[in-house]
Amino acid sequence: MTTSEHTARMSAAAGYATEAVAEQALTDTRAISARLDRLPATRAVWKLIALLSLGFFFELYDLLFSGYVAPGLVKSGILTATTAGLFGTTGVASFIAALFGGLFVGTITCGFLADRFGRRAIFTYAMLWYVTANIVMAFQETAFGLNLWRFISGLGIGVELVTIGTYMSELAPKHMRGRAFAICQTVGFCAVPIVAFLSYLLIPTSYLGLDGWRWVVLIGGVSALFIWYFRRNLPESPRWLASKGRFDEADAILQDLEARVRAQNGGTLPEVGKSEPVAQKSKFAEMWQPPYRSRTIMLIIFHIFQTIGFYGFANWVPTLLVKQGITVSSSLLYTTIIGLAAPMGPLLGYWIADRFERKHVIVTMAALNIVAGLLFSQAAGPVLIISLGVLLTLASNISSFTYHTYQQELYPTSIRARAVGFVYSWSRLSAIFTSFVIAFCLKNFGVLGVFVFISGAMFFVMLAIGLMGPRTLGKSLESISH
Q1: pTM reported for the whole predicted model
Q2: Domain architecture of the chain: domains with CATH
């Protein structure tokens, strides 16, 4: 045998070995996905969803207290209700904009962290970050210090929002993915009536020399007590491990989960079906290539406008009511009652989550938001204000859990956190300017002007999702990606 023949045979053997390894990896990633998706909805699966949902609760508490503490910040003299100029830095708008500035930077620049270091680690440390920042913020005495630390906390909240959604979509089997997000947001939105009620009790007064709004912020820090408990009881995402080629670890986690599910399911498990492989080496640039390019453009348009409707109401409703001549105490009482509806939206959505196409639910809720918002702007009596406020809250929160499910389904595992973080960041960028525009509309055109602005945004939401959104209901993450 000549040297050249020997070299050729060695090269061929190496090629066959490489192909064999690649084929084995393909088989392994298919098996991971298929084994996850066949799991029935037992206590073991729902426990994972519940643990992530508790993390989401504390996240929403810190994210949504802005609107509820705003009257207290004005009352304390740190901020003003409106600003002298469009982009003034001493009003409530600057406080809200600081939060969304941090959310924007966190989601657009740090979304890669969960793709690189894993869902479990970033879930834990992002929560530690924003809890610490909010505790420091609670002791600020100036508008600058308040806004600075709200921006810093927003960085951590932005990373956490993306991580929890990614984590949830990868752990939940395909037949219950919508319901999993519905339960997660039901638990999470329980933070709304709680923060509203605490604001009603605490903000008009002070305790131990601290203004009531500071106590509302500090109480959210209790979430730090649960962080290590969450970390200890949550496994890493097997899909993420498979995308990194760590098949033994993914298999060990799945074997443990399957054993618990089998014991709770009468000692049996459904047969493993067919599935597309988990993508292992995707590049961030893929989100600009078919089929993801149109999805990316759609979600950017959607997020620019959906945040106007969601946060335009959630963060401003106490201030809007005060502007209509209602006292601070009555405003906080009304918003507390309205806030009780927050978890009811995704709870009602639980019954439709895996029955109706996601895109159709989002479009319908946007239309309802338009009608209820315009009526709310003309409401005068407490019964009508509360009823329409509840309707707006239900529509917004059903839409919220639906699009959180939807956007996670549209990208492959290997770039899911980065891609969703990128498109989601446009909602944060939008919210920065929205805060100032709403303050401008409120000052110059009143409450009606605010809701006309919000209604226009919801119309663009309907167009983007209705015309460009793909169908995802009942499909595996991998089949949607491929």
Answers
A1: 0.77
A2: 26-264+284-481 (1.20.1250.20)
